[in-house]
Design brief:
homodimer, MoaB/Mog_dom (chains A, B), Ribosomal Protein S8, Chain: A, domain 1, alpha/beta, CinA (chains A, B), 248 residues, six-stranded mixed sheet, Molybdenum Cofactor Biosythetic Enzyme, Chain A, 9 helices, three-stranded antiparallel sheet, elongated
Amino acid sequence: MTTARIVTAAMLAIGDELLSGRTKDKNIGHLAEMLTMVGIDLREVRIVADDEEAIVDAVNGLRGRYDHVFTSGGIGPTHDDITADAISRAFGVECVHDPEAMALLGAMYERRGMEFTDARRRMARMPVGATHISNPVSTAPGFRIANVYVMAGVPQVFQAMLDSLLPSLQTGTPVLSRTVRSPYGEGEIGGPLTEVQKKHPETSIGSYPKFDGKNFSTDIVIRARDAAVLAAAEVDVMAMIEAIARSR
Amino acid sequence: MTTARIVTAAMLAIGDELLSGRTKDKNIGHLAEMLTMVGIDLREVRIVADDEEAIVDAVNGLRGRYDHVFTSGGIGPTHDDITADAISRAFGVECVHDPEAMALLGAMYERRGMEFTDARRRMARMPVGATHISNPVSTAPGFRIANVYVMAGVPQVFQAMLDSLLPSLQTGTPVLSRTVRSPYGEGEIGGPLTEVQKKHPETSIGSYPKFDGKNFSTDIVIRARDAAVLAAAEVDVMAMIEAIARSR
């Protein structure tokens, strides 16, 4: 068994609309899935308002603690888009119109016969020292500064930026998982499952109740970074379910 | 104009499955909508793993800062349900089998001819000093201790617990909102909208881009606690859109 490399991450979703319930976030779940796939452990997510203080506090609270920090939202052209300013302040650097982003946006608006308004120029602002995260959907780039990756809130744009960013990131050994469906509720499997977990300390076994409006069943999810370790635990989980079936 | 009463809240969603992407959270958006309706400002959300240290840190970081803290997840009968223990530790009290919860659950399992297993008894554990949040869906109660409300992760149960909890909470002056749909993207409205926001400092005006795969349009959301203040800003936002239409 080779040594697993652990790479961690946090996400910060930014936007009043997420906290008022007006918009239901779609980026957290997508990021979680993508990171799991490439072997980055998402350890914590925070959602804060379009509030400079709150963004600065959260970014500074997270970027020292995790290998990667992904943000969504607040990089558009309107007055409530303050993420670039907040990230600049978190890093103690100036927020400026990035020349390369200005050129990209300027050319795009010229092609489309549209005016490059002051509001649109706002989208080219980023902290001094930041580099671009490309945006094939709507041109205005996200940016990275140190281990913080600043992306759009619109899901199509967030996803496109993440696709262009991910190949460049340090990743770890992916966590493998198996799901075993149990027709029995958690109350029935809780005792024996605890024993299975104890027997397989290198796995993390989660149990997720499902409720169909009348009865509970359970999805048992086994996670491990090593395939053989995972398979051994899966055998014991299945044996446990068969034992419950026989005893009824 | 009467003085608005501001009541704040945070949410802590607990569960490995939310961070692996296996489960897409549905409770955050629901809580956000419900709190907005009753006049509680949701200011921050965190998602952490089934990890005692992470839960304790988050709860203690949030409960002093906001009037209310709502948690979801980790109160079932299996080994990975550690929320009751973590909340007890956060408050420095013991985690015990609550006699009333034991009676409720015992009676329910007897009625259904099911064994009251050790795993099921686990669901009756809560910090000393906690009181129940009733659970009409599946009996096992959530609990409140001081300003922290601990609820289930299964959305149907979370929602039922929230319904039984909300009427007992201190609420504030609700935020009213109006949405004005703009056929123009943020780049076009960004400049004039900044002026409208400046003219109406008692409102909070948000601008939410929508992307149909080809073009951006914008939902402009005006929020205020006073109806007259809201209406005045709405008039100016509509006038702004008409002015853009005329200028094209």
